[in-house]
Design goal:
This protein has 495 residues and is mostly beta strands. Helices cover 8% and strands 35% of the residues. Strand 13 and strand 14 (318-323) form a beta hairpin.
Length: 495
């Protein structure tokens, strides 16, 4: 990913950018302003320069600094949620009269309201015109440069326009934020009613049942680990800028911009374990919670120092570490716990033994650095997301060539997720587009979710019923919820 020692507010070096943050003390404004001031502007993402479009330009922000800076923005009224404690989800339309005007329901969307609440009718340009201009002007960030023409010829021709997940709700009561522009795993759903996301220094829980947000962890204040035992590497932390996170089976794991690792049980107060893993080129790029072949739960952290570290998920004892030749941006463990996908600052992706770290295969085909991966639940297919704007599918039984290449619309593929039943694969670009593929169609049938804003993360609920998308934007930062169309399940049961 690039050296982090330059600090979050530094300009990017020519080849490998450092991170940046919008939540540092005293920092006001957006990552776009940083991009615009960069000497490498022509090689970084560009957005509209038209002042009329400023209020819908993607931005990272501190919500406290920007609550009233938009002439089109309407203040978000506080709501009394006391009456919602006994709420039945079968009557979710009852919220229409009490929800904030900035939120959007499925009923309102069907009646013509923009799902993000953007008032196109009050502007002197249409949504289609804005989309057209944005597609034309957007610049994808690349670390490795070269022709993409041959690759694009190999990409799978897909049929767009499908609808597997329908829009259900959009809220601005919780707003995703991003620390590093290349790291977009900052949102996790543990059920169709429970979503966790980062909002500045707060790890937030959103209940889609109550439509209510709650802070579950504040990383600005001193963090004192509760678990203490001899030999444990735990230490006190403060003002941690969360760069990545994962939530599984009551355990929230977060990685920090300065090499931190934080582990919290959601049903217990405080933090169980926290430590700074490294101070050398430190960023914690990815964290994962998984089970090894014997069923024991493990925590894995991948850092910019080219190391992968493994911890016991109960005692948080350090169990192992693996070293590689380049910064590790993403890891994922196969469903059986035996294989480890390793992606980073290389065009090649690696398959290693998850117990020993020994590399067993090299996946060749991508043209740039990779930042996302996911395993199909059957363990046979691995999906890898890359800055070359593609997601490649690999059959683990024959890794000589990728099985298929899925192309995005305009940017890198920074997040990929399979549903737990393996029926759908979602891949997210840095901004504006989430693509959902039907795996049973051979990935040919595709739904394209079209929105505006930087995408902080995507997550299917474990029961596959919901898809959540976190949007990081100065004005329209929000959490989008989509629900699975039921007739697909009915058809499956008939067939």
């Amino acid at each position: 990913m690039g050296p982090s020692h330059l600090g979050p507010q530094s300009h990017y070096p020519a080849a490998k950018p450092s991170g940046f943050t919008a939540i540092s003390s005293g920092m006001v404004g957006s990552s776009i302003a940083l991009y615009a001031k960069s000497s490498k502007k022509s090689r970084i993402m560009e957005h509209f320069q038209n002042d009329d479009l400023e209020y819908v330009v993607n931005d990272y922000y501190d919500v406290r600094d920007f609550e009233h800076d938009d002439p089109f923005d309407e203040p978000e009224p506080k709501r009394d949620t006391a009456d919602f404690d006994s709420f039945d989800s079968d009557f979710e339309d009852d919220f229409e009269s009490s929800k904030p005007k900035t939120d959007t329901s499925a009923v309102e969307a069907r009646n013509g309201k923009d799902i993000q609440g953007i008032p196109w009718e009050r502007l002197n340009f249409t949504r289609d015109k804005y989309r057209e201009t944005r597609l034309r002007q957007y610049k994808n960030y690349e670390n490795l440069y070269g022709s993409r023409e041959e690759m694009e010829k190999e990409c799978l021709q897909v049929e767009k326009g499908k609808a597997f997940y329908d829009f259900q709700f959009n809220t601005r009561l919780v707003k995703s934020t991003i620390v590093h522009f290349q790291l977009r795993n900052l949102l996790w759903a543990t059920s169709k009613h429970d979503v966790y996301l980062m909002q500045n220094y707060s790890a937030m829980h959103w209940s889609s049942l109550l439509r209510k947000g709650k802070e579950v962890l504040n990383v600005a204040r001193p963090i004192v680990p509760s678990l203490k035992r001899s030999g444990l590497l735990s230490q006190q932390l403060s003002r941690v800028q969360i760069s990545t996170m994962a939530v599984k089976e009551n355990l929230m794991v977060a990685g920090g911009f300065q090499g931190e690792l934080i582990c919290k049980y959601l049903n217990q107060p405080g933090v169980a374990f926290c430590a700074k893993l490294t101070t050398d080129n430190a960023i914690t790029n990815a964290v994962d919670v998984y089970c090894n072949p014997s069923g024991a739960m493990r925590v894995m952290a991948a850092n910019n120092d080219a190391q992968i570290r493994i911890f016991d998920a109960e005692t948080f004892a350090s169990l192992n570490h693996f070293s590689f030749d380049w910064s590790v941006n993403n890891t994922s463990v196969s469903p059986d716990g035996k294989l480890l996908a390793v992606l980073g600052d290389s065009a090649e992706c690696l398959i290693a033994d998850a117990q020993s770290g020994k590399v067993t295969s090299s996946l060749k085909g991508h043209l740039d650095y990779s930042f996302a991966s996911a395993w199909h639940p059957d363990g046979h297919i691995l999906a890898t997301g890359n800055q070359d704007t593609t997601c490649r599918l690999w059959d683990i039984r024959n890794l000589s060539k990728s099985l298929a290449i899925l192309k995005g619309r305009m940017g890198a593929i920074r997040a990929v997720k399979f549903t737990s039943d393996g029926r759908f694969l979602a891949m997210a670009e840095p901004a504006d587009f989430v693509h959902v593929f039907d795996t049973k169609s051979g990935y040919v049938n595709c739904q394209e979710i079209d929105l505006f804003g930087e995408i902080a993360g995507i997550s299917f609920s474990p029961d596959t019923e919901s898809l959540f998308v976190g949007v990081a934007d100065r004005t329209y930062g929000s959490l989008l919820e989509f629900n699975r169309r039921q007739y697909y399940q009915y058809l499956d049961s008939i067939l």
